[in-house]
Amino acid sequence: MKTLIAAGLLIGFGVIANFLATILLNIAGLPGALMAGKPGERSKSRFVFGSLVSAAGQAYVYLAYVAFVVNWTRVAAERQDTMAWVLWPLAFLAVMVPVLLNLLHARLEAQELAFGNPQVEAMHITFLAALLGFALFVFVPAVASAGWGWVPYVN
Predict the structure, then answer these.
(1) 152 touches 84 (CB < 8 A)
(2) What is the C-alpha separation between 85 and 76, in angstroms, rounded?
(3) Within 13 Å and on the Cβ side, how many CA atoms surround 110?
(4) CB–CB of 98/14 below 8 Å?
(5) pLDDT tens across 39-89, in order?
(6) Residue of 143, 147, 144, 105 whose CA lies nearest to 123
(7) What gap in Å lies between CA 145 and CA 155, rounded to an integer?
């Protein structure tokens, strides 16, 4: 029963993250988008720099969510009355599906534009950061504590 409750919460985290990630990743990537400059007036190097700044902001914000889910799952999986082998795949999906859906939506919207969007380009890096961050936080929890100690459930 506890496994079902924990699984339901992980699914709920993923659904909530799907909606909030769009807003929060746009806010986190805004400084880089502003640094990239106006379309048609910017250089390629300025666009790349803005995309990297956007990626850094987006990745840090999204990795905070990854750290929360990984450490919450660790706490839930350590209980004797839960099945960890059910929770960890759900935690992976709760982390990766929202960022993947946001990447896909961003790419579809960017196809309508006549110019590149640094925040959309940054989403590719954010996706990779989430993938690597999940594995890193699972196997080396101290990394999550070092960079995201302010997140609940991260010690």
Answers:
(1) no
(2) 11
(3) 16
(4) yes
(5) 777 788 998 999 999 999 999 999 999 999 999 999 999 888 888 899 999
(6) 105
(7) 6
**For tokens 């666009």, what's the residue?**
47
The secondary structure of residue 82, as a DSSP letter, is: S
Tokens read off for 69 = 């889910």
Helix (H, G, I), strand (E, B) or coil at 140: coil
3-state DSSP helix/strand/coil % of the chain, to nearest 5: 80, 0, 20
Torsion (CA) 87, 89, 94, 96 in degrees, nearest 10: 160
How far is residue 25's CA from residue 107's CA, in Å, rounded to a whole number? Answer: 14
Q: How far apart are CA 76 and CA 103, in angstroms?
A: 29
Render pLDDT for 89-144 as a digit per residue (tens, 0 to 9): 999 999 999 999 999 999 998 888 767 789 999 999 999 999 999 999 999 999 99
Do the Cβ atoms of 8 and 40 come closer than 8 Å?
no
Q: Which pTM was predicted?
A: 0.91
